Structures are given as structure tokens and as C-alpha cells.
Amino acid sequence: MMENTHTLQNMFNRIDIQITRWMADYSLKILRFGLGVIFIWFGALKFFPGLSPAEELVRNTTYFFNPDYFLPILAAWEVLIGIGFLSGFVTSKFQRLTILLLFLQIPGTALPLFMLPEVCWTNFPFVLTLEGQYIIKNLAIIGSALVLGATVRGGRVIPEPENSQ
């Protein structure tokens, strides 16, 4: 019985090592791809009036700019961020600029939480509307950008730090 447990544990460890190594090898690429797709998709929708679910939020929070001019600029900005992340598959040359563009854009996405709380919360501070959830998910985008930013000088994901020294 003890040998079966030991064999099962060894098999689990081998599988765990393989999965962890696969995640270390591909996670940054998948993260770059995912962010690129999100920014291109959400940005491109803003080029076409009425298609982006965020259009009204943008119009109602950036009233100090003419939204008819601001929305296409924001759309281009977001598409450029997406292209920057996707370009990371070819070269990391533009990753710093891409992350800078993202961090300049992100604070604007949080404006509705403060300027339009009635649109973002059904029960402050715990229950978000769909619009509020759309905004809060940007915390994951910020974290993702930080992870990618940590790699611009050659950083990487290491599956077994004690074995890489």
C-alpha cells in the first residue's frame, strides 16, 4: 500500500512539473495574446457608433471633450495598445511603450466609478452593475501589464526557482 502511494505521488509530481514548465514557457505569450485581442477588439468597437458597450460610459465621463472626436482617438489608442502587445511575439522593442500607453489609458477607465457611481453600483461598495464589473476587471489587466513589464529587461517565469540558480 505504501509503495502505491509513493508511486502515485511520483506520478503526480512528474505531471505537475510538466504542467508547471508548460505554463512557464507559454504563459507570457498567452498573456500578451489575450491582452492584444482585448484591446484591439474593444478599441475597434469604439470606431463604430453604437457598437461598444462602453460608449455611453465614455460619453458621460469625458464630457469635457467632444465625444465624437474623443471616441475615435480612444479607439485608436486602444487598438495601438493591442497591436503593441501582439508585436511582442516578434520583438519586445515596443513593450515598454505599449505598457506606458496602457497605464496612461487605465485611469480614464476608472472615472465612471467616481463620476457615475449610480451607473456602476447597485449597492455601494459591494454590488457592482455590469458596467462596474466591466471597469473593475481592469485590475486584472493592470496586474497582467505589470507581469509583462517585469519581463522587458529579460525577466522570465521560472517554474522551479530552486533549480535555476
The end-to-end distance, rounded to whole angstroms, is 37 Å
The helix content, as a percent range, equals over 70%
Using the alpha-carbon principal axes, give the shape.
elongated
What kind of assembly state do the chains in view correspond to? single chain
Put simply, the count of helices is: 7
In which order are the strands of the major sheet placed? 1-2
Q: Please give the radius of gyration in angstroms.
A: 21 Å
- DSSP, total strands: 2
Proportion of residues in β-strands: under 5%
3D architecture notes:
The chain is elongated. It has helices at residues 2-45, 55-61, 67-87, 95-115, 117-120, 130-136, 138-149, and strands at 121-123, 127-128. By secondary structure, the chain is mainly alpha-helical. The protein has one domain.
Short characterization:
By secondary structure, the protein is mainly α.
Question: Tags for this entry?
Answer:
mainly alpha, 165 residues, two-stranded antiparallel ribbon
Q: Topology of this protein?
A:
Layout: H1 2-45, H2 55-61, H3 67-87, H4 95-115, H5 117-120, E1 121-123, E2 127-128, H6 130-136, H7 138-149
Antiparallel strand pairs: 1-2
Helix pairs in contact: 1-3, 1-7, 2-4, 3-4, 4-7
